[in-house]
Amino acid sequence: METQSKLIGSENLSVQTTFKSTGKTLDLTASDPLLFRLLLSLTLMGLFAEWLHPFTAIVEGSSGNRLIEVLYVLTAVLLFIGMFGFRWFVSTWIYVASILFAWMYAFEEGVSLSWMRSYIDILQNDAVDLLNTGHYTALSQETRTLVLVIGWCMLVYSVQSLALFRRSIMLFAVATVLFLIGLETVLDLQVYADVIRTCMLVLLLQGLTHLARLRDSDASGVIRKSVYGIWIISVSLAAVGLVAIVWSGLQVMPAKELNRASLNDAVGHVQAWAETGYMQLGQEKAETGYNLSGDMIDMGQPIIQNSKPYFIADSPVQTYWRGEILNNYDGRKWSMKPDNLMPTTAINPFGSKNEVIAQEKGNLITQHVEFKQALRQDFPLFGGGIISKVVAVETGSPKALPVMMADPLAGTIKLAVDTNTAGVVGYKIETYIPKVELDKLRLQGGTDPSTIKDHYLQLPGELPARVKELGLQVTSGNTNRYDTVYAVKEYLAKHMTYTLDTRVPAQGQDFVDNFLFETKQGYCTHFATAMTVLLRSQNIPARYVMGFAPGQKYAGEANRYLITEGDAHAWVEVYFPQQGWVPFDPTPGAATGSIVSPVLAPQTSDNNIYNVFSYTWSSFINPSSWSKMLGLITVLNRLNWVLIVGTSLSLILLFLAVHHLWHSREMYRLWKQLHFTRRTFPHKKHLMAAANPVWEGLGRRYGAIDPGATVREYITSLNIEEEIMRSRLYSFADDWEKIAYDEVPPNRTTSIAFMQECWLIANQLV
């Protein structure tokens, strides 16, 4: 028989647990004095502070420090609430309110309904981005912060519950010590004092919880308040005394310096392997995207494709999106001198002659950019050419207009954004697209201005001689600048291979030299850098451009384009004295490899599905199988009818799931190719395989292609009422024929667009 324990003091709270050893139901939080629970919670607050304190030395910017401060306050509030052990329907609302207030204060000065309404739109975009990419990094900063706050709240609640009700804190204590040691090992932070404080707090917690365990195991379940006081004072003195003894001992006899020889030796071995021709190991893979941090790192890091949407653009013509010009190459990375930038105005960012130049040398167009997520850091204005005018800058707050900086020599504009504002959500610019006539370029001559030569012929003094010799060899025999430039572009396309799976060259090795003579494979950074350096070695002014490829049409809308992180790109601009800067993209498509005959008809896979289904059905209705089925039914009748229904539904769902997975296996391969496995540029056979789900869907809905019919004849013969679907299929047929029969490999943008087109059409045909 269970009896209610006696209570100490007037606290009578609701959290209860049953102990099998005594058969008693004890109200734990009520049995512990409020002062005891307060001291236990304060000690836990100290442990949580040890988790947060090191990050104050790591995070940068006011937003990061603000988040740490919010987590401090949230932890204190949650521990205070947890002391009283409210019923779940009360505590749940308190916890939810605390989370929401903390989350909002991390971004705003206070609670703002307008900000909450704006977050609904952000959340919708996050849901779409997460479904499209499957990556947590696709979420906005607001959503990721919300997830962090919720996770932190769950951690605080769990640890306090274990301490108060289960009398257990060792798991969290060990995790805290390991966390601090990990920070010292990985980030080289000084955490010795933190570890000492943690040990003292753990000893104090162990003493407090041990007294509570003794009370729980006692038959009466009662301990006098005076015993609590004596125990708390004794444990506190013992914990502080032990830590003080250890600390003073270290002052008398300091610890020996850690011997890190083994780690240094390991690093030395890796460097030695790299210097002797081995590829560096363990390099972290980054995702494709535009680097706005301003921190220039050594080039060559392996990357994976990222299809997260970056911005939507309205433009009368499809263009590359020019961002920044980098002019200084040091053998490992590109950089730009900060003094090149100067404050400017929106009307004439490069001087009063800017619009005249635009009318003489290019077509003036208007472009509008809308970011998927507001940018809260400095960024360049992306445009199709030289920007003539900044028509508008759209911000989350009209009071937070960014400062506009221009680089007149490069023809680029950068916005300096305050990180504490709502950020920039879009802008509208007028830009001109240069008119370039290739035949006239071959006939042009002239002398390069001294300003151009001073800025765009720079090469590192340590550039290997064989790079210059190769540049001379490739360009010899050409009588004009255009043919010389084209010869370099063709050499790279012929002798180098496109891949995202690369490595940073060993320390002391030139990036271009490593690419041209050793690895001979890379992505746009490799090709654009190599072309720029080879041209400069022959006294041809060239510069490295960062921006975005044109992207793809957005939802079938005219003059509207979607640019993703995967469209981040680099190319080259070459100077022609009578023309100005002319862009060239040296990054090639994939090598075609072997030519694979296209497979138009999907009858085989469909027939296999129907054969399997037919065999399963015929086996089920075969009379010889009924005896076994009756035996199974007899056994099932002995079980609860709920189990029978649940098992039946589970089997039906399992069958439907297997059938769906088998039927959609080609779609899965296409999805995997789009989002995960495309570390190298897709070959022709991969692009042909990407079209298989489309042919299968067309075969199921409209019938297989007739023998001898062409792809265009087959598409034309289909009775498709939807105009958008018919237009997509015609575009798909054109792209498929080009890939299947052209000897020239498709470029990067075309390949990605074709696979995404296949994915959209196949989903509509399901």
From TrEMBL:
Residues 516-588 form the Transglutaminase-like domain. Keywords: Membrane, Transmembrane, Transmembrane helix. It holds the Pfam family Transglut_core. The keyword Transmembrane helix applies. The chain crosses the membrane at residues 34-55, 67-86, 92-108, 164-183, 226-250, 639-662. Signal peptide: none annotated. InterPro entries: Bact_TGase-like, Papain-like_cys_pep_sf, TgpA_N, Transglutaminase-like. Gene3D superfamilies: 3.10.620.30. This is Transglutaminase-like enzymes.
